[in-house]
Task: structure prediction
Amino acid sequence: MYQQRVTAFIDILGFDDLVARSVGNSELQESISAALSAASPETMKDLDFIKVNKERVSPEKLEEVRKMARIIGEIVLKEHPVCVSYFSDLVVISAEASDLLASQMVLELTCKLSIRLWSEHRLTVRGGMVMADLHHVDGGQIFGPAIGKAYDLEREKAVYPRILIEKSCADHFMQQPTIAPMLPLIESAEDGFSQITLGSCFHYTLTSSAWLLGDQPLFDRLFTEMTQLRDALGAIQAASGSDRVAAKYKWLAENCERHVSQTPYRKWDYPDGSSTSTAH
Result:
């Protein structure tokens, strides 16, 4: 029953405080519901596996192209399944370690979830990623040593808002022949671990990910958000009221600033010489 699976255990930070403040506040309750919906299995599987650039498709063909993209995405997910479960503010994403495409999709979905929770709700995540035995039915049963290992990594070692990757899991990724485009997402951390941060998620998405595929408006929005990360995180740090929490967001702000300095603005050009943007 157990399979060796790449498993990401993700905790949405600041969630308990949101819930406490939501009593008698219907607007905040709606925000919580939306944040949880962003982490639901249905939403995670619909995070644009194949991006359709509507600027490059004629209006009369747009819906047909979108339908085809959805069908292709469903076929890929069927052949290379990724399981997602969530409960309250915790999300678990896993895939068979031997399935290279599926296991790399765990990285991709972790990245997209991190960006979406930040962009739409100003929430950050902390987690652990391991490769170990797990029984995981999509949206159903989930148990095995991988959960305990990933949970311990998140609770005892991660400390800061980041996804800490166990060495054996990171080594597994580094041995894959198709990992090169995803390397900007994974950076070295202390104590022999690797990590994914909000900064590395933005950096990877803006420089290497196929998610944008020439979508200049989306690129511009994410690029602007990235340049504003330090100030936005600084505001959370100042409002935290806790030196311990403030230190964690200070760490993340400094990490994000390093990634900002390494991320150039990009203008998408097409083989026919056309472009999707003017000067930034």
Summary: The domain at 3-261 is CATH 3.30.70.1230 (Alpha-Beta Plaits). The chain has one domain: 3-261. The mean pLDDT is 83.
